[in-house]
Amino acid sequence: MGFERTDNGEASSSSHSLVDPTSPLLPPHPSAPLSSQLKTFANVFIAIVGAGVLGLPYTFMRTGWAAGAALLAVVAALTFHCMLLLVRTRRRLDLDRGFSKIASLGDLGLAVAGPSGRAAVDAMIVLSQCGFCVGYLIFISNTLAHLFRLPSNPSPFLAPKALYIWAMLPFQLGLNSVKTLTLLAPLSIFADVVDLGAMGVVLGEDVAAFLAFRPALRAVAGPSALLYGAGVAVYAFEGIGMVLPLEAEAADKSKFGKTLGLSMFFITLLYGLFGVLGYLAFGDNTRDIITTNLGTGVVTVLVQLGLCINLFFTFPVMMNPVFEVAERWFCGKRYCAWLRWLLVAAVSLAAMLVPNFADFLSLVGSSVCVVLAFVLPAAFHLKVFGSELGWGGVAADMGFVVLGVALAVSGTVSSLREILYSVEL
Q: Which residues cross the membrane (predicted)?
């Protein structure tokens, strides 16, 4: 895309970081070039926008186009506020200490709450990264099953989707055995180009389909659908782990908040346009992965295969933070091939059991992503600033914690019901 990717922060729903996201990092080298506002804008875009956007049209079908757009806007605003809470918390700790060793969300958790804070971040990182990788395998296998039909089988471990996951497993075991993933770093740029290209193709197809068919639409659905939509929206904006590294690399830190806000505004508009147009084009026939609604033209097939290749090679990059945490917990920070293989196998088996891509996005978004995006930033901010906030500030932070916990519990229950209902069908 013409911009370097930031690779010293935590991996998220759409980042492809190659660096340990939870171990303490030294301050950037004095000679390291800092990012201009334009580059910071691009890096925020790269860190947030990912394959999860392909589930937004289906989500808008479930929530209604107006409700879906409103949910996106609200979640974007809340996420932006919590991103700023993290930046303010880190800056305050830096001011107190006179120097910074806080380069990631894990570092911040350790600085604010000690080992328990680090453990909370570790747990959320493991769950979220594994969730993203399960989503990747679901997307790849469902797309391949759509493009290349195989005989159906009632067993979840022998269904066409599962057969493609089994076929990928030996290659993933090999890729995830690599100690250093530096050679896979160029795939980050490829991922961004393919994502943007896919969105462009889908938007063009959406407009053509809408002009040809003009299906019936609804603006607002019931409360349970709104919980579902909120989970997907939180997933779509899950890039909060990249905020601290991006702010540390910004050349003009006084303008970082404005640049971040502009990026979030642009991404929200893009997400809203993508979700609304996808639903407008196919109405109630919108599928959980919007690319499977498209025709069988050469360009469409190439885009779908490109996305599959992209996510296939991104999988080991996204699992890297999980390996780091697991090896630190169980192997004294030493490389452990069998532990990596066990984790990859567990993620693969989980992907076979989940029937719907967008349903799983909602589950991950409603559970761990809500905690990462809302609960931890507000809790860390409240602990560091304490009584300085006044009653209004304390109430605001507590409100985010309560809101996050309520969304996590209710959204997780709602998403699990949807997944179990789909399995029964």
A: 41-60, 66-87, 125-145, 187-213, 225-248, 260-282, 294-315, 335-354, 360-382, 394-416
Q: How far is CA 270 from CA 14, 63, 225, 264, 289, in A?
A: 15, 18, 22, 10, 17
User: What average pLDDT does this structure show over 216-245?
Assistant: 85
- The 10s digit of each residue's pLDDT in 387-420 is 788 888 899 999 999 999 998 998 888 888 877 7
Q: What angle do CA 303, 305, 307 make, to 5 degrees?
A: 70
Q: What tokens does 132 get? A: 């993203």
The whole-angstrom separation of Cα 413 and Cα 363 is 8
Q: Which string of DSSP letters, residue by residue, matches 379-422?
A: HHHHHHHGGGGHHHHHHHHHHHHHHHHHHHHHHHHHHHHHHHHH
Which tokens go with 50?
A: 């990912």
* pLDDT tens-digit map of 370-389: 999 999 999 999 999 987 88
Cβ distance 105 to 244 under 8 Å? yes
Cα–Cα distance, 3 to 313 (Å, whole number): 20
Looking at residue 210, its pLDDT comes to 86
Q: What is the DSSP string of 64-119?
A: -HHHHHHHHHHHHHHHHHHHHHHHHHHHHHHHHHSS----SHHHHHHHHHHHHHHH
Are the C-beta atoms of residues 286 and 57 closer than 8 Å to each other?
yes
Domain ranges of the chain: 37-424
Q: How far apart are CA 296 and CA 245, in angstroms?
A: 41
CB 369 within 8 A of CB 128: yes
What is the CATH number that goes with domain 37-424?
1.20.1740.10
Q: Rounded to an integer, what distance in angstroms lies between the CA atom of residue 194 and that of residue 420?
A: 32
Q: Whose CA is closest to 10, among 372, 405, 363, 380?
A: 372
Name beta bridge partners: 35: 250
d(CA 160, CA 207): 31
Q: Roughly how many angstroms between the first and final C-alpha of the chain, as a whole number?
A: 43
